[in-house]
Amino acid sequence: MRLKRIKLAGFKSFVDPTAIPFPDDMTAIVGPNGCGKSNVIDAVRWVLGESSAKNLRGDAMTDVIFNGSSARKPVSQCSVELVFDNSSGRIQGEYASYNELSVKRVVTRDAQSNYYLNSSKCRRRDVTDLFLGTGLGPRSYAIIEQGMISRLIESKPQELRVFIEEAAGISKYKERRRETENRIRHTRENLERLEDVLTELDQQLQKLQRQAAAAKRYKALKADERKYKTELAALRWLKYNKLMDELDQRMARQDTDIEQFIAQQRGDERGIIEHQQRQDDLKQRLDTLQNQMFKLGNEITRIEQTQLHSRQRKQQIEQELSRLAGELEQHQSALGEQQEQLEQCQWQLEEVGPEAELLNEQTEDVAERLASLEQQMAEKNAGWRAQEQAFYQQQQQLSGKQQQIQSQQTLISRARQRAEELQQQLGELDGGELEQQLTRLQAQHREAEQQHQKGQEEVNQALEHAEQAKAKLQQAHQQWQDCREQRQQSKARLTSLKTLQESAAEQGDAINDWLESQDEPVKQAWQMISAEPGWEKALETALSQWLATPVITQGQSPDIAGSRWLFAEGFTRNKPGGTLAAKVLSEQVPGWLTQIHCAESGEQAKQLLSELPAGQSVITAQGLWQGPDWQVQGVAEQNAGMLDRASEIRQLQGELANLEARETQLDEQVQHAQHSLEQAEEALAEKRHDHRQQELQAASLKQQTEHVQQQYQSLQDTHTRLEQQYQRQLDEIEQDQEQVSQLAEQVEELSLQLEEQQSTQQSVENEREQLQSQLIQLREQHNSLRSQAHDKAMQRQQLQNQYQNAEQGIHRHKEQLTQVQERQQALREELMELEMPIGEQGEELQLLLEQQGELEQQKGQLNESLAEVEQWLTDAQKDQQGVQDKIAQMKEQRQSLQLEYEGHRVRANSVLEQLQEMDQALKPVLENLDPEAEEDVWQQALDKTTAAVSRLGAVNLAAVEEYESQAERKAHLDTQQQDLNEALETLESAIRKIDRETRARFKETFEQVNEDLKMLFPKVFGGGAAYLDLTDDDLLETGVTIMARPPGKKNSTIHLLSGGEKALTALSLVFAIFRLNPAPFCLLDEVDAPLDDANVGRFCKLVSEMSKSVQFIYITHNKIAMEMATHLTGVTMAEPGVSRMVSVDVDEAVALAEL
């Protein structure tokens, strides 16, 4: 498994979508300070689930989003995606079948963070779980950033332990252990809550037993109450229906009387209508006369207004004529001024015209000369530019050749140095030791595989034994569960029977108080008397009134009104055959039972009854009790089944004792089976642990074999590759030397050509300066003439505008003079017309006043006739009002009857609604109603029944059902309690198993890492010693410390080492961990910064060796570390605040250089 590429978009300084490939085992990321190299490390840590902004060099998680620059706006989200090559199948679980795996994280400005696995949305925990045990994670030993090297060495023992745990692959075990502990805590909390519920449930069951008896009594009373309510509603409906029929008859008679009065009223209305018509005729004539008078008044008013208007208009016309005379003089004066201005403008235009034409001709002549000179200058410039371009090209060629010579010399120097290094590396390669180690590991691996197969057979046998023990445990547990359920059912049945028995035998409060005050408990008759099988019903019938009666064995009964008692002293031991006393199993029986004979059937009872003396009776097994003049059939409901229940209670008590003993025995069997299962599981766990160790050993040997085989193959490939590179370097040196000789000759030739071009270029510059001077003079002269011509044109235009304005003013004043003269003529004509009609209007006004007087006289006569008609109508309407009042009074009476009818109808409907609410139909109720039923009697019976219900108080009608339901619930909760206890034991067993596996793996990993550290430290330092140590004996909690002593030093603590020594020590520890459990890749951020050149060389050699099994991606500024890489990736910041990538494959670059 290896990292193929990283995709970034909007992450810190990588604002544009950027893909960073990692094609080789060693990739170096280089670039100047502050260009964003460490952001690549932060991106990997962030996408692997880092949740602390501080570890990403920020204050909030949204700080990783690009926040803008001087030329860029901020973005709304960022994303990072890691693409892995999983062709080796390193990732297990559901993603093991994928050859390529992508992990992506996206965060937005509102702090919404999402994770994706192969483009499918997932949780952060899914990502961390995926890499558990692989050495990868946000804070694993595979990612070493700036400053982490020194912190790693100086970290606390518990912090250093985390790296060992990750290398051992037990981080996933610790996660499972934490989850298991949480489950145990939740399970115990559930058990506590369950015990509280069971305690409360027991109290509820006791209450429900007492409430069940009251519920039956309540149901019987409610049925009677419902019957009385239904029949009482039917009686009321009949009463209201009868009253409605009587009111219908009275309203019919009232309607007949109202119709008679209405006919009389219509006869009187005909005379009123005739007088109303005459009244309307007189009003119409009066209105016509009024209109005529109105028209005459308007005409008189018009003539008077016309005379007044004529006098006012005459004054206005005279004033306007005076004003128009003044305006006429003003217009004539202005017209003379405009004519003088027009003549002056015409004289000035005649002077300006020739001057403007002369300036235009001079401007055109200078413009032609300027155009000719500019064309000549352009033609010359084309030739001059060609000469300059040729001169500059020769200078560039000369400079390029000189740079090529320097570059070739640098390449020759590097190639010679590289050839020496390759020759040295070829001498250091030796594969004999690796070949022997490979042969030895292959033999060990075959032996480990055989032991692994043998261990698998032992695991299968242990698993079979565990399955058998588990089946026995399940069988025993099921038997115990069935017995427990049967006991609980019997116990519930016994409790219910006792409750019913106590309810049936309930006494009054006074009797109960007396019974409780006695020193010894007083039994009831049902507790002392029992019958032979089949005769319980007969005995209950005979003792129906005495079954719940207390039996006094000694002393006297209390003086309590209405009480009933039995005295044991009066019981007899004599039980004659054929009597009911002989059917009683008790030694003593009440004496009257000897007077009751038993019969097998009703016919035999009749026969015996005819033969028995007076005072004796006969009873059958079915409860038919007969005397000479009486008969009793069965027993009352409240006392029914008391003896049967008593018999069943005794039977259930015996069964409970047997079931409890059986349950104890089965519980012992379950415990024994549980112990056997635990032993089998422990044996299976040991076998599996041994098998796992064998499997791990075989896998480790296989991995070591493959690793050594890869190293051997890599060694051979490296030898071949180094020989090829060495020969290629020699060829390159020879080719570069030839190219340097050729370039030197070309430089000499170009220098001579450049000297000749310089003399030619000087003469061209002199000629250009002369032409440019002439061109500047002509342009200045042309601009001056154009400015003068433009001024003359503007002056001429202004004069033309003044001339046109003067012409328009003359025309306007002439039109205004004409308008004033026309207005004067019209006003004089209107003045003559106003003086003519004043005499004629005076005669017409006198005639209209005479006509107005005649119309006033006719109006008075019509008003007198109209008053007489209206007086007659008033008298007739008063008589008509009396008739209407009588009709209204009769209608009110009829409405009163209607209201009373509606009231009865509403009450009847209310009764029907009551019946509907009780789900009763009226017709069946009326059919079954007693003909002699009376409302008052039924109401009294209903009140008594309601009072009886009230005396019962609050009754739980669902007591019986609730009791059964709660009993079933209690059984279910008991089962849950047992399941929780079993689950708790299973979880605790899992914790123990995890602890065993953790101790074993941690110990094995610690020892292996310690051995590798002891081997690597002298190799890195060239001597010295280093080792790991534990701080405690408990392998689950112990911390880890490191001690290192470089060559020649005897320091007492790790803190006394220098920065470079701490860095090399930390690298030795990290690489020791990688040797045991190599992570898919390792990220190093400037870890070589504190090292000198000699130590950098050792570091590079160690990384080169480890790169055969681990992919390295490192950030560096050191040239030696850069030369080690097979792929260079550069980070630049050409645009401020924005990082970009430049990748270079070293081998491809070398191949291109060879071409």
Word description of this protein:
This protein is α/β, with parallel strands linked by helices. Among the domains are: 1-142 and 1080-1154, Rossmann fold, CATH 3.40.50.300; 431-484 and 664-754; 545-555 and 562-634, Alpha-Beta Plaits. The protein has helices at residues 38-47, 124-130, 148-154, 157-168, 171-428, 432-504, 509-517, 525-528, 536-542, 602-611, 642-834, 838-917, 922-928, 935-952, 959-1021, 1059-1076, 1093-1106, 1119-1124, 1146-1154, and strands at 2-9, 18-21, 26-30, 77-85, 100-108, 113-117, 120-122, 143-144, 551-552, 566-567, 596-599, 617-620, 624-626, 631-633, 1025-1030, 1040-1045, 1081-1085, 1111-1115, 1127-1135, 1138-1145. The strands form five sheets. A six-stranded antiparallel sheet has the order 2-1-4-5-6-7. A six-stranded mixed sheet has the order 8-17-18-3-19-20, with helices on both faces. The longest helix is centred in the first third of the chain and has 258 residues, at 171-428. The protein is flat, with a radius of gyration of 64 Å.
Average of per-residue pLDDT values: 77
What name is given to the CATH topology of the domain at 1-142 and 1080-1154? Rossmann fold
CATH superfamily of the domain at 1-142 and 1080-1154: P-loop containing nucleotide triphosphate hydrolases
Q: How many whole angstroms does the radius of gyration measure?
A: 64 Å
What share of the residues does DSSP label as strand, in percent?
5-15%
- Unreliable residue runs: none
- As laid out across the biggest beta sheet, the strand order is 2-1-4-5-6-7
Q: How many H/I helices? A: 19
Shape: flat
Termini gap: 35 Å
Count of β-strands: 20
